[in-house]
Structure formats: structure tokens, C-alpha cells
Amino acid sequence: MIKILIPIDFSETSINAIKYAMRLLKDSACEFIVLNAFADEVYSKTNELNSTDFEKFKKEYKKNVDSTLKQEIDELFKLSANLKHRYTAVSRFGSLIDETNRIIAKENIDLVIMGAMGKTNDRSIAFGRNTLQIIKHLKCPVLYVPINYQKDFPKKILFPSDYMMPYKKRELKLVSAFAVSFAASVNFLYVSGFKKLSHRQLDHKLFLDSCFTDNKCAFLQISGKDLIESINKTVDNHKMDMLVMVNQRHSYFENILYNSTIEEVALQIKVPFLVLQNLHR
After folding, report:
1. N or C: which end of the chain has fewer CB atoms below 10 A?
2. Measured between alpha carbons, how far is 3 from 94 in angstroms, rounded to an integer?
């Protein structure tokens, strides 16, 4: 059984992410753990309260969160009573990152699925603040779903790589399994002004090839220096419907993310975006 963790803040985007997960994994046996971590909300509303009133407020807030979680899951069952799917609601007084990582470790979560933006749903930026924090600190693959994304299954997966760093097999197995399930092709993209690969790059490319023997693969190369523009154009021009990147030191994704603020991230997330963490788990 696949274990999926879905952090939600009850925004339109987070509810859409749950619905997408249900469609994406409709043929798989899954346990969905739906999490709301609410410490920030409580702290923001209780600055003027004494300790006794703070504890009362926190208790009442948790009761309301539990009730809302139950209502949301009941609504999901009305939409699709899939006997292969099991749902567990979890509310935690803690930070989103800490509580998510605790559940990942305790439940050995295979994948986190969440909306790419939070309650503000500002379409002028690619990621919300919670999303960026999760990308940087979560110890599990994360699939981000753009707001109002409705397509069910990916058919063409784009996987940009410079072939400089080795990947973990567990993470690659997840991508391969997605591609097999939906008969999707996996398209590796190398962006560089140099046509020739080093011996290190060739070894890592061969390793990738060996991990996707069950998949239809293509290795694309674009000459250029603007990585973000190359990715955005490839997604559009080749009609890619899922993007995969690896979050690790000296990777393509680190170059895009860690040197930017939220407003400066120019990667246009129009399709579901799978971020692999490349950690030992």
C-alpha cells in the first residue's frame, strides 16, 4: 500500500491537491493521511491572551480543525468512494515542517502531495511560502499540484538533469512507477553550452538509463545558459504534463531555488511538479 501525506490549510488549492491525488492514484491501494498543522494560526490570534485563555483557545481551535477535517474527508467520499483508498485525518499543534517530517518518519511516507500555493493563491508567483519551506526542508518526495489543475494522468514527464550528481534508487523508482502506471515517457533534459559529457556525467546518465528500463525514455539536450527559460520552453513546446527535479546541493534545482526569493522564482509551474529529495530513507 502506498502511503501518501497531504498537508492542507483548507484553501482551494489544497483541496484541489487532494482531488488530484485521488484521480492520479485511483487504481492504487493507498492510505491518505490528511494533515493540518495549526500552531501558526493559533499564535497569530492569541498575542493578547494569558496562559489559561491561550490553552482554552488552542483546545477549541483543535476541535474546530478536527471537525473541518472530518467534513472535508466526508465530502471526498461522496465524490469518490474508492475501496482501494483509506483516509486518516490528523491535526497537530506544531509547525508545518516539523509535523510533516514527524509523520514522514513515523509512517514511512512514500510521497507528500500538496497545492503549489496556499490561502493567498497569488497567481503572480509560482510557490507560496509554505511550499518553499517544504521544498527546502522536507525529507520525502513532494508532488506539487498547480491551482485548478484538472488533467488526470501524465503522459510526458520532463526530468531536467546535469548528470553531475548520483541519485537514490528509491526516488527514481517512484518516477519510474508513475511512468509505468500511466504509460508515460520520461524525458531527461540537459541544458548546457557544451555538447560533450564528462566521464562522471556519462556514468550518471548510464545509471539513470538502467533505472528506467521499464520506461520509454528520451535524452534531450539544449544549448544555452538560461536553465529556467529552457525548462519553461520545453514544457510548453513538447507538451510535458509533469516536471521532476531533484533538490540537492549543486543541482539544477538548487540553482533555481536557493538563490531566489519567492517573487524571483521564475519557474512557471503549469503542470504537477515532483521534487525528489535524494536522501537516504
Report:
1. N
2. 22
Q: pLDDT class for 120, splitting at 50, 70, 90?
A: very low
Element housing 71 (H / E)? helix 51-79
What is the spatial distance between Cα 173 and Cα 147, in angstroms, rounded to a whole number? 27
The answer to whether the CB of 84 falls within 8 A of the CB of 30 is yes
Q: Evaluate whether residue 38 is within a structural domain.
A: yes
Q: What is the 8-class DSSP label of residue 197?
A: P
Q: Which residue has the cell 514527464?
A: 157
List 186's β-bridge partners, or say none: 157, 217
Residue range(s) defining the domain that contains residue 270: 156-276
Task: Say if residue 127 is in the same domain as residue 182.
Answer: no
Residues 6+ positions from 59 with CB-CB distance below 8 Å: none
* Exposed / middle / buried, residue 4 (Cβ in 10 Å: 0-12, 13-18, 19+): buried
Last residue of a domain, one of 112, 145, 178: 145
Determine how β-strand 142-145 pairs with β-strand 273-276. antiparallel
Q: pLDDT tens across 122-144, in order? A: 444 445 566 666 777 788 889 98
Report whether 139 contacts 281 (CB < 8 A).
yes
Cα angle vertex 124, ends 226, 96, to 5°? 95
